[in-house]
Amino acid sequence: EHPYTRGLVACRPSLKHKWHRMPTVSDFLDNSRHEAQVVSADETEQRRKSLYDSDPLLQVKDMLVRFPAEKNWLGRPVKWLNAVDRVSFDVFQGETFGLAGESGCGKTTLGKAIARLTDMDSGQIIYNGTALHDLSIEAFKPYRRDIQVVFQDPYSSLNPRMAIGRAIMEPMQVHKRFDSDKQRREKAVELLETVGLQADQFQRYPHEFSGGQRQRICIARALALEPRFLVCDEIVSALDVSVQATVLNLLADLQEKYGLTYLFISHDLSVIKQMCDRLLVMNKGKVEAVGYPEDIFRNPEREYVRELIAAIPGKE
């Protein structure tokens, strides 16, 4: 087989085991012998002991988010849709916590509510001991820096008329990070290089980049404020499998470098299994399952979860 073809096949996440780093197409094209290293059971156990030997960084308690489903002739809601229906979970510092489910299950709404981009109807969000749901918009500003979101479509997340270097500088200017544009520019260049791009691409515009490169730019922009918590909302679902693997490896590298905590939202359970320490499955706003990925895959208790697992492409 051609190395490129073998690379495409290999860079899909495995359902049998978890890799330290995802295989990529370039691993096969450079003619080097590539052997992906599997994360051992002992390594998994040690990581879990390290992660869960502390208080949660984020606690979500009985979150309810609803939208009007039907209105009367006066325009007043008479029927509601519960997009997030009394959902509770914890996320620990340095953890990658997965939210999975089909489109419309409420996972994106939940992520937006944590970042205060969507209002809750009731419930609690406790972040690092602070009740975020009780804070005014002004009081929430410091936490806006700490909790950032990377969305699915990188092109619509970027201003097409703004050079990507300026796009990375923009949040630093808004939140008054650094004393001068020179310092902000230096930081933006550093972030570009951190996500695998080049300093000389600073003045280029979003349309000059591929989808995977644009997603790297959005990640760099999210990191501009040095957050601790990233909501990653379907950030690889629009990318082909060869690019997916490189972006997933980047996320793992950034987590190790900066100690980031991820809320990783995806409809792709194979990606979730590769990336996440724990997993919550949603359906119609409710929790269907929560736990370690291998436990949920090995013994799915709910029919909906079994159907999701059976629908994974290439599942044996």
Task: Note down, in words, how this protein is organized.
- This protein is an alpha/beta fold and 316 residues long.
- The chain has one domain (3-310): 3-Layer(aba) Sandwich (Rossmann fold).
- It contains 13 helices and 10 strands.
- The chain has helices at 3-10, 25-29, 41-51, 107-114, 137-146, 154-157, 164-174, 181-194, 211-223, 241-258, 269-275, 293-298, 303-310, and strands at residues 58-71, 77-91, 96-100, 122-127, 130-131, 147-150, 229-233, 261-266, 278-283, 286-291.
- A hairpin with a 5-residue loop joins strand 1 (58-71) and strand 2 (77-91).
- Helix 7 crosses helix 8 (181-194) and helix 7 (164-174) packs parallel to helix 9.
- The longest helix has 18 residues, at 241-258.
- The chain is globular, with a radius of gyration of 20 Å.
- The model has no long low-confidence stretch (mean pLDDT 91).
